[in-house]
Design goal:
With 206 residues, the chain is mainly α. The protein contains 13 helices and no strands. The two termini are 34 Å apart.
Length: 206
Amino acid sequence: MNKTKKKILNTAITIYNEFGIANVRNQDIAVKAGISLSNFNYHYGAKKDLIIAVFDLMNETLQKNVYGNRVLVQEGQGLSITKSYFEFQERFSFFYLDTPNILKMFPELNEKVQKQIEESYQIIKNLNYLAIGMGMMKPESPDNPGSYDQFMRHIWIHNHFWFAHSRIIQSEGNLVKKGIESLYNLCYPYLTEKGILSYKQFIKSL
């Protein structure tokens, strides 16, 4: 990626985070980036092109900094992965504050987002499975088969919308730490004593 494109993308992310995608014009980004509109249009001729490029950068960052750490996944380090995910959300908060409207405005992203969600589901499912094997989580009750699939979706909902929820209730302080604490309360009924201790030690280290 050349310097101008990188500058445009980083500037766009900063302004989107502050004002939201719907309220930002390409002209605003060009001015903030200190480049001419014609130069901007040379790289991104339409707002749609820029949004797709921003999302591709998001996905690249997600794969590299969160899901890409296969060692953490293989070792069942779900809390470290969740922490990285919350930090990722802070950088791209505009998307998590307005996901449904963004997908309505730019339907080209729907397939990419669905693929990302399915990958998230699988990683959460694998981490839960590893946590059971490591004695951190209780096995699924035979009286309620499929309950852990639903639990996996609840974890995804919690994590994906954590920053939107925090903004709505005007929460302050370390939102990453608060997100982990909130996830702990969600997971508590499924944790063993070993899992509870692990959570508490992780939260204390933040």
